[in-house]
Amino acid sequence: MSLVILASRVRTEEKRIITALERRRVRYDRVDTRRLWSPAAGGSMPWRAVLNREIGYFRAVYAGRLLEARGVPVVNTATATEICGDKWRTTVALLEAGVPTPRTALALTPDAALDALDGIGYPAVIKPLVGSWGRLVTPVPDPATARAVLEHVAALPSPQSHVVYVQELVEQPAGDLRVIVVGDDVVGAVVRRGYGWHANVSRGASTEYCTPGLDVTKIALAAAAATGADIAGVDLVEDVDGRLLVLEVNHGVEFAGFQAAQSGRVDVADRIVEHLLARAEQWCG
Amino acid sequence: MRARSRPGRFDVWGTDPREATVISCPDCEAAVPLPEDVRLNEVLECGECRIELEVVSVEPVLVALAPEIEEDWGE
User: Fold this and answer.
1) Contact, A80 vs A227, CB < 8 A?
2) I need a labelling partner for A271 at 20 to 30 A (CA). Which of A86, A186, A255, B9 fits?
3) pTM across the whole model
4) Binary contact (B75, A254; C-beta < 8 A)
């Protein structure tokens, strides 16, 4: 039985993972999620383990659910993917595990969000529950701006968009930290510095190598464990008191910028493959 | 939203498609270099018009316009 890389869009990261598998002469299949289907009841699937690299959140969650229902182990699990891809569920998981995260509130309508923001205080950030690469993440310095942004939120067609996630704005002039966790290890860390206030590499942020200290290592491992993610990109910021706070735990971590900053210190794709092989061995013997 | 190109809308340069090193962008016809280890479903970007292309076949190399980014895409 072979290992499977599940992905519809082959980005630099998937390509590196495939190359790492081939370098290790591992038997694998690459399955395009867009072609995947399964009856609700049926026999088992001939796959040892699946690495879920699907770029679409809902497709990734249901692919995980579909495969797990057929007895196939999936990394990250469907539950971990579900938690990491939903900002509110991530916040709850972090708080339950005692992992520090910025003050956050969930409002069930845009109107209620104004009250929630009064509770959180300004400046704050309004974020969509699901989404990535900093899309629609909007800083609101005052109530007047918040009202204008929330009017736009109310006009969005999807009912899910009207559930509003608000968070205190933690200024990060020196950039934020991206830490990659694989299994029980921190693979490395980089400082990300963006243009404007976004620190997403997909938006042109630069990455610079940094050695993760003991506090960073501890909090990143705790954050990944809180969400149940085996492989995670943990984003951290430091508040004015020097306290580390976890902003996000990414289930389908992109690591091209991270890898470039490592200058050969670590091969992220190979570490992922190594972990997948260990997991497959553990599950299937 | 931009419609995806039809599967047949492509061009391959070179006499042997397996040895092609560039393809023609289906949108602006600029030459897009192919990586040596091109993969199925790999996403390439046209350096001229910046449009994303998806490799829909590797032997021979065929490309189509990549699907638009969806709301729930990301890390």
Assistant:
1) yes
2) A86
3) 0.92
4) yes
